[in-house]
Amino acid sequence: MFGKELLAEVLAAALAGGGDFADIFIEEKDVLGISCEDRKIERVHSGTDAGAGVRVVKEEGTFYAYTNDLTREGLLAAARAVSRAANGAKIRELREIPRGIHLSVSQPPGAVPVEEKVAIVLAAEKAARAVDERVRQVIVGYGDVTQKVTIANSDGAYVEDERVRTRFVVQVVAADGEILQTGYEAVGGFAGFELFEHHAPEDVALVAARRAVALLDAQPAPSGRMPVVLAGEAGGTMVHEACGHGLEADLVQKGLSVYAGKVGQQVAAPAITVIDDATLPGRYGSYAFDDEGEPARPVVLIKDGVLQ
User: Among 123, 261, 276, 308, which is most exposed with the fewest C-beta within 10 angstroms?
Assistant: First the structure.
């Protein structure tokens, strides 16, 4: 998207006033969203977001500027805005970072007509309402994002990448007298329109609708202390909140994390192993490179309860 010479010039300008490290993140993102409610398409919206961010790091300080002017002058202006850090570092020659994994998309969302996307939304809405006469409301949402990024930094890393994600959500409200219950189901991933080869829109709608209807006859959950079993999908979110934030490098470096200085120590039950893995194919959080240009790889955070 952008030549290495231009990016090196921008990084040099960012470090002209000082700093230990500088990087630039440039993106062009195409988005499409479709929503259906009350048996009709409520909204179809699309657009393109484009811009760049330039960052300079000096010791524990971070200086940042952004712009949607992607000309040479616009990028240099952003770089100069953050160049007042102190004591600059040298810039290494930019080199392309090897790609550890290849995440393939067989049907790019941009190649699929909007009419076809609208059709699957309406089909899901119809399928949900057919489940039971007690279904009162159905909301269906479709969204896709195609993001092209260029990342470069003063350590010499250079990355060009394309991320494609597609998501489909159905929410159903069922009612029986004064009882209201909601069923929800969502599918998505690092995928294009081929997502629906594995998750038919009607099937997603049926899961949400049947869940809402089943809850109408559900008994109150018992109270008290009892064992809890977490599904893998829900467990990931809880581990992220309980452990993930505490394992962020800047918090550890500043001594603000409960895990600071505890590598090699027991921090969880021996049965617990936690792996951060963005290389799993098709997952919504998978990527080839993160936003700092680091290649995706499995990272063992906790092994047999011991912090790694």
Answer: 261
Q: Is the pTM of this model over 0.70?
A: yes
Helix axes 201-215 and 114-129, enclosed angle (nearest 10): 30
Q: Name residue 219's beta-bridge partners.
A: none
pLDDT digits (tens, 9 = 90+) for 183-241: 999 999 999 999 999 999 999 999 999 999 999 999 988 999 999 887 767 778 888 88
Q: Are 65 and 47 in contact (CB under 8 A)?
A: no
40-92 residue pLDDT tens: 999 999 999 999 999 999 887 889 999 999 999 999 999 999 998 766 677 88
Q: Are 37 and 136 in contact (CB under 8 A)?
A: no
Name the more confident of 60 and 253: 253
The strand pairing partners of 114, in sequence order, are: none
